[in-house]
Please model this.
Amino acid sequence: MASNNSLPIAVFPRKISTSAAVDLYDPLVERKFPDASKYNLVVLSGGMADVSYSLPWVLDVLEYVRMVARDFPATKILGICWGHNAVSRALGGQATIEDIHLTEAGKQFFPFAATSGSTFILLAENHECFVNETNNVPTFQAHPKLSNDMAKKMLLGGTTETSTEQLEKEFEKLDKPTDGVKLLERIIQWLKE
Model:
């Protein structure tokens, strides 16, 4: 079971179908990583830890990402939120916090990001989304898995340093429609490419 500060690494065995299996790994507590040769996708999801810290388990995740990208090009890597920043750091970039503005390549990849490493194509301005040149490692700083209601609950349960005015501004953003479902549909399409 994952702890509150860890993130699961989800891996998908080498098949893409409605019955595809998902295996979860916890790099913080279990400290083991899947054999990338047995999977067609490794997903690094969100987490509570700061990817810029050089904690031993974070460094292990970064090394795992480098190894998968280098040694198993047929295994795709998807970084979401914390995973976006981890992939960026592992492959030569750095984490930043910015607004998202899609580039032309981003508009093509997402028809409706951390600073990238040198082998990445920026899909959004301010380095919020990118994909590598071989199209097997996209990452984005987003939370398509969260509903607006869940995000509101997380904001309410967050830090006491957030002012009422700041919360109201964030809630206004969350009342707007999102492209989370479209983004996930595009990722499923990408898996088949």
